[in-house]
Amino acid sequence: MASTSDFRNGFCFEYNNDIYTIVEFLHVKPGKGAAFVRTKIKSLTSGRVLENNFPSGAKVTDVRVERRQYQFLYNEGDNYNFMNNETYDQVIIPKPLINNPDLLKEGDICEILFHAEKELALTCDIPATVVLEVTYTEPGLKGDTATNAMKPATVETGATIRVPLFVNTGDKIKINTVDNSYIERAK
Are the C-beta atoms of 42 and 23 separated by less than 8 Å? Predict the structure, then answer.
């Protein structure tokens, strides 16, 4: 058992017959009334994000999890296949458990979160940034750079990203996978 004093970002616990991880938390002590912990929690089975308040000192059942490195192989519809490079074990992860699966390229190394006791895959985190090649974008107009104008570009995985006007087809760009935003041109 863990209490609210053990809460931190990424902490996994059981609540309402589901497994949740803490996305954000804040200890609140109002002028009147008892202290509480305001949290934003994400269900590891459905991917839903909920806001919930826990009374200060409340007990929850913590879940032991393990993070393992897996290589992305290929996808079949909504199922994504990964392989452990040490044991060559393969695991299939459904699309809703992966953050930004549109940016996954074959061979990328991802971190998969497993329930330690049940050997159940809970989530898959892709790298924070990826470098992908632009396969199609409209040409930018010369002299149209006075503002931070952006245009859509399709990358090699099929995802559409907003990029500056100077990016052309064939350029390699660095993308932030958290919010699908352009960072810079890659070399």
Answer: yes
Taking the C-alpha atoms of residue 151 and residue 37, their distance in angstroms, rounded to an integer, is: 42
State the maximum Cα–Cα separation within the chain, in Å, rounded to a whole number: 62
Q: Which residue has the tokens 């209490």?
A: 3
Give the model confidence (pLDDT) of 65-76 as tens digits: 888 999 999 989
Q: Are strands 129-137 and 172-176 parallel, antiparallel or unpaired?
A: antiparallel
**pLDDT top residue among 140 and 113:** 113
* Annotation: CATH topology of 129-185: OB fold (Dihydrolipoamide Acetyltransferase, E2P) (2.40.50)
Give residue 52's pLDDT band: very low, low, confident or very high (50, 70, 90): very high
Residue 106, φ and ψ in degrees, nearest 5: -55, 130
pLDDT at 43: 87
- In 3D space, the residue among 121, 110, 112, 119 whose CA is nearest the CA of residue 177 turns out to be 110
**2-62 — its CATH code?**
2.30.30.30
Q: What is the pLDDT of residue 167?
A: 87
